[in-house]
Each structure stands twice: as C-alpha cells, then as structure tokens.
Amino acid sequence: MSITPETDAGATWVKSSYSNGDGGNCVEWAPSAATHGTVPVRDSKNPDGPTLTFDTQAWAAFVNAVQRGEFA
Questions:
Q1: 64 has pLDDT over 90
Q2: Which top-rank group of organisms is this from (predicted)?
C-alpha cells in the first residue's frame, strides 16, 4: 500500500454501494486503474486529498475478506 497526494485526473471513480445516503462515510475506488496493477481508494468527501493505492492482489484479498464477513 502506498499513499499518494494526487490522483489520476482521468480515472473514473466508483462509490461503494455500502456508503450511507447522507453523503458521509463514503469510500470510492477507481477500477479503471486496476488494469495497470494498482487500485486507488479515496474518501469521497475529499476527492482532491490523498489516495491509498493497493496492488490488485491485496485489494482482491481485502474485498473477498469483507464479503466473507471477516471484519464483522
């Protein structure tokens, strides 16, 4: 994982379907960047802020763990 202060201006960001409806607690990721081997993740309330960048294998492992309920 790395932290980057800038994001790819051409990236298409997708908001988590688990984000609440009042505009808070929202996480976005840029699936288009995954084709380059990294997955950037950011706070949708601060789109110009830093992003966390994960390699695709680490991101897939995290998503699978969430789907299995390992963090509940």
A1: yes
A2: Bacteria
